[in-house]
Design goal:
With about 325 residues, the protein is α/β, with parallel strands linked by helices. About 40% of the residues lie in helices and about 15% in strands. Helix 1 crosses helix 5 and helix 5 packs across helix 12. The N and C termini lie close together (about 5 Å). The structure holds phosphoric acid mono(formamide)ester.
Amino acid sequence: MNQAQPAYQFDHRHLLGLADYSREDILYVLEQARYFREILERPIPKIPSLRDKTIVNLFYENSTRTRVSFELAQRRMSADVVNFSASASSTKKGESLKDTIRNLESMKIDMVVVRHESPGVPHFLTRCVDAGIINAGDGAHEHPTQALLDMFTIREHFLDYDGLDGLKIAIIGDIAHSRVVRSNILGMLKLGAQVVVCGPKTMIPRGIEHQGVQVSHNIDETLAWCDVAMALRIQMERQDEGTALFPGVREYHQQFGIKRVHLDRYPDFKIMHPGPINRGVELESEVADSNRSVILDQVTNGVAVRMAILYLIAGGTRS
Ligand code: CP
């Protein structure tokens, strides 16, 4: 970091979604994350930046990557961490979300990381308590830290680019029900990328072009065009619930799955996926594990990006 430059005025008390963050805010978070990424490479990857802070991880929905990543980020920065699991709490006895959060705040907490199946819960919490709120995924609305780590990973692999200007990014799969795609479209367009969403008509919301993206229903045309192909998880539970968006898994894989043959045919694009992956559905297993995949880099970078956002929401400034 250049000591001579004045600190950027990052004035957000919360991270509710990338709709609220400007291009400059996003670039600032990503620059901070580069510093924390270096910390994670040290023999002892621990710093005292949050040693006076208490953070509650409030997860009402299942998670592997986001939950572990936030907890590791908090512990690497020496915060006091409390993990709240709805299934083992008084939520099961009928306690409301507002009562739960106000009781937790009475125990002097500084920040809350929340995942919930209902869109808008992080916004609601800002009206209940003074703590900083970070959205770890709210229904099909936003998943801002996932989009930040995705953009960080893309920049890491395309260092020639300032922002993501001119980069061609394809997002493939269930666009209609994805919070990851919503945050990524907001962030990637602010950083200057060209974005194509690709999938069956039933998975693409009507009028999405008005958000500034292009639509494709042809996987070959999309992969021939893009620098980065991000496959999304097909929500198999919808098939079981009887709200199927495609005739069957085999048909989906045939038409929209990324396969070994695509890697040979189109030698340039990188493969991303926010996880969890359905192997053999959105990605052939060999593709997920190939040297064109940066999926595990996304996971590694998630810790650094979450360290950066925790640090900034806690009021930290670095020049
Ligand atoms: N990408 C993501 O949100 O994964 P988890 O559901 O495992 O947190």
